[in-house]
Amino acid sequence: MPVLETANFGNILFTPESVFEFPRGLPGFEERRQFVPVQNPQTAPVVFLQSLEEPSLCFVTLPVLVVDPQYRLRMSEQDLEVLSWQAERQPRIGQDVLCLAVLSFLKSGPTANLLAPVVVDLNSHRAVQAVAAESDYSLQHPLFPQEAALCS
Amino acid sequence: MLMMSRRQGEIILIGDEIEIVIAHIGRSRVKVGIRAPRQLAVIAHEMKLVGEENRAAAQPPPADVLQALLVQLQPAAHTLRSQADECSVRQDAGTKN
User: Does the beta-carbon distance from A43 to B70 stay under 8 Å?
Assistant: First the structure.
């Protein structure tokens, strides 16, 4: 089993089949094409996306339905093409794709990027950060809005 | 900002090398064709914002911040725990009186 050196988790073992392939990289990181999902019971339901190519690059994500159980995935044609998605309909979260919201840790509290979730085809493991077409979702959706209101 | 009205099929030129075609006007969206030199990046504004957001998000936070997040993600467990704390405080108060 290959060993991956990381800045945050030390050396980790991973199976080549578990790697997510981003043919276009991610916005801001266009050259980073391969990420390994890192999960452990202590940090569930968080999914870390660890770059295979850059030991210090690691995103903290949550399944989008944990952030918003009503979340509706609407992918653009271009993003569906990256996944080689053939069907006429949109992919279904859980059945067809894994859909992860990237978290940011701002001074005001953690936020989730619901405008552009990471979408991974569960069969091929091809992945894309999909900018939701015609969406009102926020780039910085507060994870705990009530608390933010209390603090202000 | 320069504002121009254009109809479907009409074209705007920027310098000698950039051409913007109003390809289709729908009810709420406009399809725009862009011809530009390869070395110029043409992206939707949202992609730039997502790139900036990604760069800010590219490393996990300190362990205590992550721990606080995990606690908050388990509201049920957290509520039970804080209720238990409250009970123990009350009991302490009771014994003092």
Answer: yes
